[in-house]
């Protein structure tokens, strides 16, 4: 009996004594030898079962944990402010479904956990797909499209926020962010530079705000159901007008007979004002501001609007100052607090001027043309967006994109209700499709076009996902 082994093309034949010695050594090296019943594995499949490297598994777990902390932190913070506002409110608003404090807290905890899982799963899925594709297809060969595909797959995690709940506003806003990044890539591209050149317009953010205001404020007066519930509540608070007044303006703009003139008179009587309303009026100024002149109304409204805006922006500026600049507060507290207070005053002025100018421009046009209709409302609310010039340049694009997302959602809701978008042709969970497309673009830009991001966003993405290595390097290995 003899065995043969191939080594560098030479055949070595083992003697029976060598075979016995080899067998005895194996027996002595183990406590118990059992007959082998494992089928032989073909040589082509040997070595294909590889354990996941610990550093890659750690990257997935860390990204998931950081994504969860961001989602839960943001949603939990908003829920906390809502709960505190509820406790500070003495009486619930009219027509509000009364919930106990315990039910509100439980609901807030569920939403916080749900959004934490959403962002945690998104981060973990993206990193997992990024590592998987790189392992299967090669880091260099897949560098151009790997983040695009991983971002699209990770976008499906939006379903964790609720299988039935639609998040159209969030999806459209992320799409706007992706469009901005794509346009920045196009501007620096030799092929698309000329096409994207108009996007470099200095005051393009203000123009977008004017377009958004025309749709949003027209919907606020004429079709509030086309706006998201939270945004509608925000507008009703800062718009400063009761629902009966808005209904009166809607009736006259739509060319319908008045349905609530008596209710408008009762509303003004509760404020100590006796208003005379003509059923044949062509201009709704007496409905909007009673016996006040247009000029007096704008001044008084501006003062009241500023008082309403201050509580909105105080936490927006002070809380980041306490968290982000907590070390600097010990060194230069006066400087940081002064900047926060100036930012609060400036943003509050923007919001109050924005709301006051909406009524100013509409009254101005109504008086000039002696009529009130839907086109007049749209035209009167367009220049309202000029108030954005009060804000800092760095905040303008953020605000204009936020409002543009809600304007687009409201616009398509209006045309769908008008019958131009039949329900049979609408896509179920179109928000997930739009969100996945947007995250694919964003993550592709993050991996390939990092310079199009602002530094503060890039720092957050790097903290969650880890800085992506250049395409020509092997990722996260000791040699690189």
The stretches of 5 or more residues where confidence is low (pLDDT under 50) are 1-14, 22-49, 474-480
Could you give the order of the helices and strands? EEHHHHHHHHHHHHHHHHH
Give the integer mean of the pLDDT values. 79
Share of β-strand residues: under 5%
Overall geometry comes to globular
**In order across it, which strands form the biggest sheet?**
1-2
Q: Fraction of residues in helices?
A: 55-70%
Largest sheet features: 2 strands, antiparallel
Number of domains: 3
How many individual helices? 17
Classification by helices and strands: mainly alpha
In total, the number of strands is 2
Domain Transmembrane protein 135 N-terminal: 293-413
Membrane topology: Multi-pass membrane protein
Transmembrane segments: 348-368
Family: Belongs to the TMEM135 family.
Write out key terms for the chains shown.
480 residues, mainly alpha, 3 domains, 64% helix, globular, disordered N terminus, disordered C terminus, membrane, Tmem135, transmembrane helix
């Amino acid at each position: 009996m003899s065995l043969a082994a191939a080594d560098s093309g030479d055949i070595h034949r083992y003697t029976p004594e060598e075979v016995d010695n080899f067998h005895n050594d194996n027996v002595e090296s183990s406590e118990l030898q059992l007959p082998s019943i494992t089928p032989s594995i073909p040589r082509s499949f040997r070595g294909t079962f590889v354990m996941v490297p610990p550093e890659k598994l750690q990257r997935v777990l860390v990204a998931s944990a950081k994504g969860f902390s961001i989602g839960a932190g943001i949603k939990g913070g908003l829920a906390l402010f809502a709960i505190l506002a509820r406790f500070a409110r003495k009486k619930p608003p009219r027509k509000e479904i009364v919930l106990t404090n315990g039910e509100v807290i439980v609901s807030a905890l569920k939403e916080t956990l749900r959004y934490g899982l959403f962002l945690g799963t998104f981060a973990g899925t993206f990193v997992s797909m990024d590592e998987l594709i790189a392992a299967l297809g090669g880091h260099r060969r897949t560098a151009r499209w790997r983040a695009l595909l991983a971002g699209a797959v990770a976008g499906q995690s939006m379903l964790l926020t609720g299988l039935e709940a639609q998040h159209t506003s969030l999806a459209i806003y992320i799409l706007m962010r992706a469009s901005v990044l794509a346009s920045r890539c196009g501007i620096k591209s030799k092929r698309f530079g000329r096409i994207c050149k108009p996007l470099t317009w200095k005051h393009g953010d203000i123009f977008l705000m004017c377009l958004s205001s025309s749709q949003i404020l027209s919907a606020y007066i004429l079709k509030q159901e086309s706006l998201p519930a939270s945004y509608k509540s925000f507008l009703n608070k800062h718009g400063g007008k009761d629902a009966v007044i808005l209904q009166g303006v809607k009736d006259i703009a739509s060319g319908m007979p008045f349905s609530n003139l008596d209710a408008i008179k009762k509303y003004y009587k509760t404020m100590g004002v006796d208003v005379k309303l003509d059923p044949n009026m062509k201009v709704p100024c007496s409905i909007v501001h009673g016996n006040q002149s247009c000029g007096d109304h704008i001044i008084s409204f501006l003062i009241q609007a500023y008082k309403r805006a201050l509580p909105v922006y105080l936490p927006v500026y002070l809380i980041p100052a306490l968290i982000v600049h907590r070390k600097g507060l010990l060194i230069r507290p006066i400087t940081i607090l002064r900047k926060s207070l100036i930012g609060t005053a400036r943003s509050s002025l923007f919001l109050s001027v924005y709301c006051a100018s909406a009524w100013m421009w509409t009254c101005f046009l109504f008086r000039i043309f002696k009529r009130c209709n839907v086109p007049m409302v749209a035209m009167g609310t367009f220049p309202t967006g000029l108030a954005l010039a009060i804000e800092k340049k760095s905040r303008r694009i953020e605000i204009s994109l936020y409002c543009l997302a809600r304007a687009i959602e409201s616009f398509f809701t209006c045309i769908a209700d008008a019958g131009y978008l039949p329900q049979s042709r609408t896509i179920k969970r179109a928000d997930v499709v739009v969100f996945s497309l947007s995250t694919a673009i964003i993550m592709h830009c993050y991996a390939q076009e990092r310079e199009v991001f602002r530094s503060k966003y890039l720092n957050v993405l790097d903290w969650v996902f880890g800085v992506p290595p250049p395409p020509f390097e092997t990722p996260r290995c000791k040699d690189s």
